[in-house]
Structure to design on (271 residues):
């Protein structure tokens, strides 16, 4: 391992996103996997994570205790793709130990993010929280924000695989938040019908943007933002067909976290 290598710990390492991160970091010059953690009781505990990921052995065995992994390997950056109920605790442990954090797990509340921002600032440790690491998805959000200045109505439809734990997706929420920065209120005045099934017209998000979540096997991560005004619509869509689409953003975030002493929310703020 060279001196310049950024050492990386992956939380949720046995999951699909965790495995993708391990493969990406292992193949990236200037980075090195030094720790990998998943839930205690995972049948792969003790197995080399390279074997789990379908690549050559990397000399790192999957563990089940984050504190022990940090203590033993002193990583520069922790990448977390776990579950909404444990990501905050993982991040708090890492930040208090002086480990920079890159979070791709969605489902955290605004209060959670504010609290992590406080920990990050107090410890002078960089943190990046991104609802989506695909560069195309970030551009979709930026385009939707720009278009919101010119269209009075908007809805978001997001499509994900059936194992996704949160709805709506973090990307959909972040898109709506960015759009609301450009237009404080989107109209729903033309919708007069009565919902015969609750939320048939979608859940109401920021600035009255209705958000629809689809969960089906076969999808990975997809979203379309539909903007409308009298006589026209504009649809902005992004599709991730493979988790490899997220890896350039993850690698960029690992490098950027090394330069930060505070929390940044959203990949659009570092590209």
């Amino acid at each position: 391992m060279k001196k310049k290598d950024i050492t990386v710990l992956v939380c949720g390492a046995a999951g699909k996103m965790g495995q993708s991160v391990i493969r990406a970091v292992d193949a990236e010059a200037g980075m090195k996997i030094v720790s990998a953690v998943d839930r205690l009781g995972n049948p792969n505990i003790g197995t080399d994570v390279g074997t789990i990921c379908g690549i050559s052995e990397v000399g790192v065995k999957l563990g089940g205790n984050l504190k022990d992994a940090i203590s033993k390997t002193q990583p520069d950056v922790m990448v977390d793709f776990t579950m909404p109920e444990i990501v905050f605790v993982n991040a708090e442990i890492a930040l208090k130990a002086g480990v920079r954090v890159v979070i791709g797990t969605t489902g955290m509340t605004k209060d959670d993010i504010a609290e992590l921002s406080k920990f990050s600032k107090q410890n002078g440790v960089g943190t990046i929280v991104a609802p989506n690491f695909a560069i195309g998805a970030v551009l979709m959000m930026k385009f939707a924000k720009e278009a919101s200045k010119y269209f009075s109505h908007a809805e978001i439809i997001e499509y994900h695989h059936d194992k996704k734990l949160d709805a709506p997706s973090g990307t959909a929420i972040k898109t709506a938040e960015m759009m609301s920065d450009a237009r404080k209120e989107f109209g729903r005045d033309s919708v007069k019908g009565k919902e015969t099934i609750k939320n048939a017209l979608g859940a109401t998000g920021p600035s009255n943007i209705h958000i629809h979540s689809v969960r089906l096997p076969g999808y990975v991560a997809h979203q379309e933002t539909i903007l409308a005004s009298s006589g026209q619509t504009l649809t902005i869509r992004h599709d991730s067909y493979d988790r490899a689409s997220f890896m350039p953003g993850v690698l960029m975030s690992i490098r950027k976290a090394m330069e930060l002493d505070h929390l940044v929310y959203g990949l659009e703020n570092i590209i």
